[in-house]
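Project standup — Tuesday

K.O.: blocked on the structure for the chain from last sprint. Re-posting the sequence here as requested.
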Amino acid sequence: MQPSIRHLRMLRALAQSNSVTRAAEICHVSQPAVTQAMVKLAQEAGQALFHRNPQGLFLTEAGTILAHRTARALTLLDAAMADMAREIRVQATWAQLTSLIAVVELENFTLAAHRLGLAQPTVHRSTTTLERSAGVAFFQRTAHGLIATRAAQQLAQAARLALAELDQAGSDLAALNGREVGRIVVGALPLSRSGWLPQAILRFRERRPSFPVEVIDGRYDELLTGLRRGEIDMMLGAMRMPAPIADIEQQALFDDHVVLVARHGHPLLQQQRITPGMLVDYPWVLPRHPTPIRAQIDAFLAPHQPKSVVVTSSVIMMRELLCGSDHLGSLSRVQAEPAGEAQTLAILPVELPQSARPIGLTTRRDWDPTRVQREFLDAIHATVPGRG
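H.V.: unblocked you, prediction finished:
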């Protein structure tokens, strides 16, 4: 759902004033313009947004949903536009903001046009028109390409999140009408993929058998970027303590421990006592810096360092290397115990000090989930390892 920004401003004014006359005054438009805008919004929403009584116009349930998301979207945009010329609040369009987002991310008009499926002059015109109405520079042009100014970066980020709010409005409005619109996007860190997240998806499927769920695997920093841009709804896995940035919220759901693993029949499994000095004599498969597991292993082995290390974030790659050699590796206990039961890897009898780490859910601090997203969160909580 992507209604006109001008129409959304009229909706907010009418929701606050309950009067077409007052809404027209606030938005500096005619009363027929407000009425026509509300008709258009109702058509796009597929439901009535207002009902009339002797005291004025009041929001329906559908209107309340759209007005709530509208207020959040416009608050984001207006905060980013606070130091810009007033014209941008009146003249900005989603097409212009979408072009700005693409150019900021790709630092090139041609690449941005290719991503959007538009002609390069169209993207250039949209972005420069928006820049002109803002009264501030959006880009510095260098020999190496475009560099977005702080103003452009802030507005692009606000526009991403505002568009996400409108997507959520579409999902909630469809649910109110008995339809399913939208999708759940989960950023999956390694631990969540082995049991917990699949169980949560299956539980969610019992209630919503056809609702789209997309799981994005990746490194923490990559997933965090997607989360903060509104492209990912939530992240599951090992949390970072303290949180790396203030605009996210972390909810610990259980503690896990790091364990050392090797193939069954590994020579170290015959030892009654294993020291760090013995461990570094073997080749290792380790995750890259600066993951929590890597930091804990490095601290445990210090001052010794393994003589041979293969670095990979793939648990599958690590298991294959360990099963076919005397390499050593590390996993969370939640990941390692199922593997041990399947006769693929064994847990070494080594206690790592301070190896507990919080596992949980990471979202944007101001995120307001839709009805369907809340149902998925319920499934996440219901399938936490060790519960039930």
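K.O.: great, moving the ticket to review. Residues 155 and 190 are 33 Å apart (CA to CA). The longest strand covers residues 248-262.
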